[in-house]
Every structure is written in structure tokens, then in C-alpha cells.
Design brief:
With 90 residues, the chain is an all-alpha fold. It has 4 helices and no strands.
Length: 90
């Protein structure tokens, strides 16, 4: 990774599990939830289909932008003394 991604942060330096710092939590799951529950879902089968369709609609560009926010979010957590930062990014 260091050869191809000079800004790569080693796993030992990754922060503990935090929804504010996990792109899946702060971007992807939120986007899926908004897409899936725009309309009432009547059954488990319909829910599964809606989740799959919504997942397929997420663009790689959307995911890349979420990942690019990670360093800024990490700096914000440090600046806020490990406080909640979600309100800073909405």
C-alpha cells in the first residue's frame, strides 16, 4: 500500500470503532437507509430486493467521496477532544 498510496494510514494507527469515522456508517448505510425507506416496505422479500437495488444504485464516486472525508473527520474528532462530530458534516 505504501508504494501505491503514499497517504496510507497503517492499521495500527486507525481509530477505534466509531460511526463518525467509518465511511460505511457515516455515508453508505445512511444513503441506503434513505433510499430503502422512501416508501413503505411491505415484506421481507420486498425489503431484500429494495436493499439490493439501492446498493446497485450507489456509485463508486459516492463511496470514494465518503472515504476522502475520513482524514477530515479524524482531525475533527481530535479537535473536538473525541466528541461527537456528525453535526459538522451534515
Amino acid at each position: 500500500m505504501r508504494e501505491n498510496v503514499p497517504q496510507f494510514t497503517e492499521p495500527a494507527a486507525w481509530p477505534p470503532n466509531s460511526p463518525d469515522l467509518n465511511p460505511i456508517d457515516y455515508a453508505v448505510w445512511r444513503a441506503l437507509q434513505q433510499k430503502v425507506y422512501q416508501q413503505h416496505v411491505s415484506s421481507m422479500h420486498a425489503l431484500k430486493e429494495k436493499i439490493q437495488r439501492s446498493w446497485d444504485e450507489l456509485s463508486q464516486d459516492f463511496v470514494n467521496r465518503a472515504i476522502e472525508q475520513w482524514r477530515q473527520r479524524l482531525r475533527s474528532v481530535v479537535k473536538c477532544n473525541s466528541g461527537h462530530i456528525e453535526q459538522l458534516f451534515n
